[in-house]
Amino acid sequence: MTTKTTIYVDGDACPVREEVFRVSTRLELPVRVVSNGSRPVRPPGLPLVEMVVVEAGADAADDWIAERIGRGDVCVTTDIPLAARCLERGARALSPKGRPWTTDNIGGAVAGRAVARGLREAGVATGGPAPLTRDDRSRFLSALDAEVAAAGRDKAAGPPRAWVSFE
Question: What is the pLDDT of residues 45-89, one digit of tens each?
């Protein structure tokens, strides 16, 4: 187990990769940018950044991240189900607009996603996400710093009592 927080990036459509790389370089944290190769991502040439290309498939990148992320790590994603899976593993999750996903807000986000899907299936145009603004990027950087600091405290504290095995 690594003693440093690892930042996992759901990389196929992540608009804040450069911001993640800046934080990684400044804090000397490893980053895994995971994609299925449908949208090629150019490697940044940074020693702490690993580009991971998984097989094609709708959830292949999500599965790769969810199987490896753990307590004390952070995932950057717009994918609400992936964020929920990361939280279940004790990790932290953050949207590219700087919204931390938490156990308090993920349930409502999952429900809202289901409603939006139902509306789209019924033929109602729900629109897409608005482009990121300079303020969004700034908010993201601040939130990423906060989440990385909190994740480091999580990692240092070890597993929650419920995870401790007495065998």
Answer: 899 999 999 988 778 999 999 999 999 999 999 998 999 999 999
CA-nearest of 20, 60, 52, 13 to 145 is 20
pLDDT tens digits, one per residue of 142-158? 999 999 999 999 988 87
pTM: 0.83
Pairing of strands 31-35, 7-10: parallel
Domain that holds residue 14: 7-102+131-156
Return the CATH number at 29.
3.40.50
Number of domains the chain is built from: 1
